């Protein structure tokens, strides 16, 4: 086995840099789990508020349902990001990182789907519903103004009708004085002109009668719109205000329908068609030769004036009709999704509270890569601190002492076995006394001599 080459100065510097980063990670890791748990619990609370807004029932079962869902979301977020923070910075191969990145992307999508939109509903749900009410008011106002504009334009046909009526009336007076056909009196031409003048006068009166109704309906619609605008901004639960808003919306829809029916443009079109078609002529024998040509001219004038009046009425009918608006109540969650563009900060906060740990995962990845680069080819013995070295020496001493005790126990075991084997048994006979000619023990002789003295 060859000896490892000593570290170069740059490698030693990188090793110290890696050890410094490891120290920082150790300190940060002491509270990272607690911070992640706080984020998960906060997301669960807002998820609970969002789920509660979707449930119609407010009983115990709905409470436990919303609570269990929010707890499941909190646990899922905590476990998912714990896995990512531990595993993704630790892997080194491109295939493993790619797989974990895909898993993290799928997990982020799942978190947004199950939690973030409910968090946004809790953060901006009431404001989103108010936005829906305000947009509905704007739509109703546009429809009301359009219906009123069409009705007022139809009322403007009164001037056209009055102009045609006045022209027929003037022609009848000219015929009565003999300036039209050359024969003074109230003959056939006079009666035709007077007939059409009276028809147009009746139509003019009917149009005039519609004007107060149009203004009354428009004023009523504006009053309803004022109450609807007040409901969008007044304090109180938005659900209760939505109920009152729905009632006002139904009334306003009825007013808009009334305004559409008050338009006299269809009536003017029909009257213009009848103006030239329904002409009551006197008996042929009563018509003088001098008046025949005049009656033909009058009928031609009737056709022209009727066509002009019809074109004016059709121009009113061609105006864009008011849109049919129907108010549809929405929940806070649906309103947040429907008006997501108006609540970008709320959506950003709702998503950030769930996906903020992804930033920590990337930070750990960069730091772990820097640590691995700083370590280079340094072995374990190069990374030992003084405290770790002392602990290693203590462990070595303990191992040596344990081995020494074991060796002593193993060496003492055979001697003890021999001693037990040589010891006399209790039932064994006593040894016979020594022979007389045996040499006495010097220690015994000295002991006896001392006793004699």
Mean pLDDT: 77
CATH architecture descriptor name of the largest domain: Up-down Bundle
Low-confidence blocks of residues: 433-439, 443-453
> What is the subunit arrangement here?
single chain
Query: What coarse outline follows from CA principal-axis ratios?
Result: rod-shaped
Counting DSSP E segments of at least 2 residues, the number of strands comes to: 0
Keywords: Membrane, Transmembrane, Transmembrane helix
Biased composition (Low complexity): 409-421
Region (Disordered): 409-453
Transmembrane segments: 25-49, 61-83, 95-118, 347-367
Q: How do you describe this structure in short?
A:
The chain contains 13 helices and no strands. With 453 residues, it is an all-alpha fold. The chain has 2 domains: 155 residues, no CATH class; 202 residues, Ferritin, CATH 1.20.1260.
Features:
453 residues, mainly alpha, Ferritin, 2 domains, disordered C terminus, membrane, transmembrane helix, transmembrane
